[in-house]
Amino acid sequence: GCKTIFVKNLPYELTEEELRTAFMVYGPISGVRLPSWQHTSNFKGFGYITFKREESADIAVKKSGVLTLKDRRVLVDFETGEAKTGYIRSEKKKGKAPNSHTYVK
């Protein structure tokens, strides 16, 4: 039951509109988010797409295994809220303050 997917290995010059256009073939999209670094405002190379229907997210994950954007093969998975290797995760499970974060190596 997930409507949001995680997309990584995105080209750094990719726009939200280009990502939306690439994934709208899987179904109606309610939102696209491309995180950027606070200190440089540069795009981090990954993003999130939220579909209006769970079925659309299912199709996107299953069918986009061969998707290439601007000569880069992108990797797609369901956004589960779990930390992805190399990204920030919440320390809530370790008994630390709910808003504290650590970097995963």
In total, how many beta strands?
Answer: 8
Mean pLDDT: 83
Put simply, the count of helices is 2
Uncertain runs are: 87-94, 96-105
Strand order of the largest sheet: 2-3-1-6
Helix content: 10-25%
Sequence of secondary-structure elements? EHEEHEEEEE
Question: What topology does this entry show?
Answer:
Elements: E1 4-8, H1 16-23, E2 29-33, E3 46-51, H2 54-63, E4 68-69, E5 72-73, E6 75-78, E7 88-90, E8 101-103
Antiparallel strand pairs: 1-3, 1-6, 2-3, 4-5, 7-8
Characterise this structure.
The strands form three sheets. Strands 2-3-1-6 form a four-stranded antiparallel β-sheet, with helices on one face. Strands 4-5 form a two-stranded antiparallel ribbon. A hairpin with a 2-residue loop joins strand 4 (68-69) and strand 5. It starts with a strand and ends with a strand. It is globular, with a radius of gyration of 14 Å. The chain is 17% helix and 29% strand. The model is unreliable at 87-94 and 96-105 (pLDDT under 50). The chain has two helices and eight strands. The protein is α+β, with helices and mostly antiparallel strands. It has helices at residues 16-23, 54-63, and strands spanning 4-8, 29-33, 46-51, 68-69, 72-73, 75-78, 88-90, 101-103.
Keywords:
105 residues, alpha+beta, 4-stranded antiparallel β-sheet, two-stranded antiparallel sheet, 2 helices, 8 strands, 17% helix, disordered C terminus
